[in-house]
Design goal:
The chain contains five helices and six strands. It is of the alpha+beta class. The protein has a domain of about 70 residues: SepF-like protein (Translation Initiation Factor IF3, 2-Layer Sandwich). The strands form two sheets. A four-stranded mixed beta sheet has the order 3-4-6-5, with helices on one face. A hairpin with a 2-residue loop joins strand 1 and strand 2. Helix 3 packs parallel to helix 4. It is elongated, with a radius of gyration of 34 Å.
Length: about 160
């Protein structure tokens, strides 16, 4: 009998934490719960709480400085060291319009090469849009160009005589 008493005392010790208590969390939750009708453990008309909305309008005003959608930065670097800050803007997924009219040809070439490499590493795209003006876009912005050459090829293809 000593063995059975030992097993019983061990089982009683292990299951003692599962006994109902007066100060249980469940009783606190039940005290805070609102009363509403139930049927088969389903709430018939639960009271839903709606969060307060500051604005009922879904229109975002133009002057809102907190709205940051797709942002375009116009950069006019004065030295090669400014290119590091431009890459930081690209990493923040901002489109960069780069105007190199303030630099000599050698520095402009170095900056364009550096930014092309950084843009490629970030899976972005780049395009020359004018004389010493370039655009660099991050991966979330698609860049498409409709140049005179592509217009000529498209028109030549569609205007061929039917055979």
């Amino acid at each position: 009998m000593a063995v059975a008493d030992k097993f019983k005392s061990i089982i009683d010790f292990l299951t003692s934490g599962f006994n109902d208590r007066e100060d249980s969390i469940y009783s606190e939750m039940m005290d805070e719960a609102e009363d509403y009708p139930v049927q088969d453990n389903l709430a018939l008309n639960p009271a839903l709480s709606q969060p307060e909305q500051k604005h009922s309008s879904k229109v975002v005003p133009l002057g809102n400085q907190n709205y940051r959608g797709y942002e375009v930065m116009v950069c006019e670097p004065r030295s090669y060291e400014d290119s590091i800050g431009i890459v930081k803007h690209l990493k923040e997924r901002k489109t960069i319009v780069l105007n190199l009219h303030l630099l000599d040809k050698e520095q402009a070439l170095r900056i364009v090469d550096f930014l092309c490499g950084a843009t490629h590493a970030l899976s972005g795209s780049q395009q020359k849009i004018g004389d010493s003006v370039f655009i660099f876009t991050p991966v979330n912005v698609a860049l498409s160009a409709d140049s005179q050459k592509s217009k000529f090829l498209r028109d030549a293809l569609w205007n061929q005589p039917q055979a």
